[in-house]
Every structure is written in structure tokens, then in C-alpha cells.
Amino acid sequence: MLRKLGKRRLGMGVGAGEMLIVDGVSSQGAHVSSMLPLRDYLPGASSPETAIWEPAVSTALAQAGKVSGNLQVSVSDDWVRYWMVTPPTGLGSLAELRALAANRFEQLFGAAAEAWHIEADWSDDRAMLACALPKSLITALGEVSRQNDCTLGSIVPEAVRLINRDAGSLGDDGWVCSFGSHSFLAILRAEGRLLSARQFHFDLLPTLPEVLARLETEALRMGLDMPQSIFLLGDAPPMVELPDRPQLRVVPVGRQLALPKPIGLDRKTDAYRLALYGAMN
Amino acid sequence: MKPLQIDFTPRHDWLEAGTDKRHRSVWALACLLALFLLVASLTIAWKLQSERSAVNARIADLQTELDVGQESEARNDSLTAESAQSVQQANQFLNYPWAKMLGTLEHNARPEVSLISLEMGVQRQSSKLVVEGADVGAVLSYIETLREEPLYASLMLVRQEKGGAGADGGGQRFTLEAAAAQPEPPVAGKSGER
Fold first, then answer.
1. A93 touches chain B (CB under 8 A)
2. Any residues with CB less than 8 A from the CB of A139 and at least 6 apart, and which?
3. Which value does ipTM take for this structure?
């Protein structure tokens, strides 16, 4: 613990197309010590299951030089799978919950769960949000950070990072939508209990009415009433007037947090934003 | 909204084995705690036993000292009782009502009965009387008269023999054992009786 506290905080962003390390944030900006385009360093990147992450992670840390610190990794939702797990009564162990989550994963995504590392907000008495990351990414991050003088502080998906960052501003009822670069995660909660979790993918960022239409469809599919509150996180679509939905309350959360200027990078990329989530959190 | 407890860091792999592993950890901790309690109990019991032995030894020593003290005290008590008995006997001897007894004998003297001897008993609580008379009836009457005197608690005829008194020499000699009556102790609280 003392060793961990004594190290500085490094933010690593694993974006959809690049990997980036932020080595310190000051008033002048955030110092980017490494930026790696994944298309050149990620063999098998066409599918998360087949991607080999060790070369990319190793190169990114090598580019950063002799950095040592507490590495906070934020992974783009492009590499993450989200779903909801409702445990039946009678489950007695976390192993059973894991098996249940893996089984549900295979049903929903049609892929073997062996190549994925599954985590969830584990509970045996309520529905929970589950998510999966490629197992090779977790393994590579662990091994490479061990080989370097880095402590692996956390590996958290983008939407989870955003939700936890602004958890105090989110109500217990309504939709919570976390927007990434190519998808948004929508979770529906009522009185603090999870009712639905769905990841919507897109090529172009949908408008707010399009988002509402998808949410209404999802609520209808689940047989639930459309709630009157929607909380928007991340790079959400811009606010527009909704004259046909006067009761609906759309709340953008966390938008006031302006990202610092990157030092050593000419633009604020997706991976830069992710790296800052870890470096500044 | 509560933050989501989701983190893929490998350090969380201890959860992989699930509740069973945690149960094993809990059981291991419980066993360690039980072992510690057992060792602590045995240590405390051993220490208490040692203290108990020491206390018992101390009690035995004190008991021995107490026995010796009681024996010595009893010896002192017996010596005191012997002394008190001697003092009491001397006191009784000195307090024997000689004057009253002699007065009683003189008061009841009869010409037909002769007082031959009067001597103190071995216990110094009785006296021996030897009287003689020619007329047996007179002597017996004399004895009865003495028995009625409050001075004597008892007057027992211990021997009767033929004596030399009388004109015909046919007198009878009687030896009597007389026990003097104890003086009445003062009645405590007599004036307070209702």
C-alpha cells in the first residue's frame, strides 16, 4: 500500500484505434508520454477474441520511457461487452454467479466466454451489470506492468469509469446513458435496482431524439414504462428541444469538466480522453 | 447512484475461486482463532493451577501454624483450668461453714447422744460424723433432726457398729457422711421480674 501511494498516477487509455499514456497532469496541460496506433501493433485486431495485446502494451510502456507509477487503465467500450445478469434464488457462491454470467454472455453474444474476462457488480439477490474484456488484454497488462516498474492500479471499462466518476449526480430512477466513440451503454434503474442494460452501437453519433427512440423501443421490448429522467454521460449528443416530450427530463452529467490541453499530442483523441479519466480520477 | 464495483485488475483474482475459497479463508481464520484461544486457555489454566498449588501450600502452612497455635492455646487453657480447680477447692475449703455446722451440732446436742468425732472428708466438701448413744432410737431421732437442718444437703449413714457407751455397754456407734448444702447463687435480674 505504501509503495502504491508513493508512486505517481499514470493514465492509460485503450481506445478503439490507439493506446495512449498520460504521465502527469498540470496547469499547463496533460503530458502524453506514449501514443500508439493499434492497427500496427495489435495482431488479430479484427476481433477482440483473437487480438494479441502483449506487443501493443509492451510498446506503449516502452515508448513512455522509464516511467514508474500506479497505472490506471481505462478501456474503450469498443472492446467491452455489457449485459445484465439476474441471479436466480439459491445461488451460493461467486463461482456460480460467474458461471451464470458466462452462460448469459454466450447466449447474448454467440461467442465462447473462455476468451473473455467477465466482471460484474456482483450480487446474489438483485440484477447486476456485467461486462467482459478480452482476456488477452488483461493478461498483457498484468504481465507487462509486472515487468516494468508499474503497479496496476485499475482496469475499468469506459462506461463504468464515467458512471463511477459522476455517480453522485445520477439519480436512482431513469435511464443512464454513457456514450463512447462507437456505442453507448444504456442502463435503466428504478429505486436503485437495475431493470435493463443494453449497449447500442453506432457509426455516427445519434441525435438526442434518435437516442430516445432507441430507449423507448428497449423499454417497450422489456415491458417497462419509459421513465421521465435520462442522464447523459460522456460524449453525448447535443441537447435539443423536445416539444413532444414535455415531461421528460434530460440531464447531461459531467459535461462541464473540460479536458486539459494535451502536451505532446495535437488533438484530443478518444484514447486521450480515456487516459485522462484514469490520470485525473 | 452507488458506484459500480467493477474492476478487471488481476489483483482481484483471489475472487476467482469464489465463495468457497473465501469460506476456506474464513475457516482457516476461525481455526487459527480457535487454536489461539486453546493455547491461551491452556496457558491461563496452567498459570491458575500453579497459583492454586502455591495457595494450597500457603493454606497448609497456615493450617499447620494454626494447629500449633491451637494446641499451645489448649495447653494454656488446661493449665488454667487446673489452677482454677485448685483455687476453687481451696476456696471451698476456706469457705466451708464450720461455724454454722458447729452451731447446728451444739443446738441439737442431746445428753443421750454423744458426738465422738467430726472430721473433714477427702473432697473437702463433706464431713464425717461419729455419734454414739445407748438408745438406738434416740440416736436415730438425733440423726433425723440433723437431716432436717438446712445446713446439710444430705446426711447418710455409712456405718453402724456396737460401741462402748451406755451403762450396760450396749450402745451403738453411727458413722455419718454429711454433705454441706451449697450456698444459693444470687438470682440475676430478680428485681426485674414481673
1. yes
2. A53, A54, B10
3. 0.86
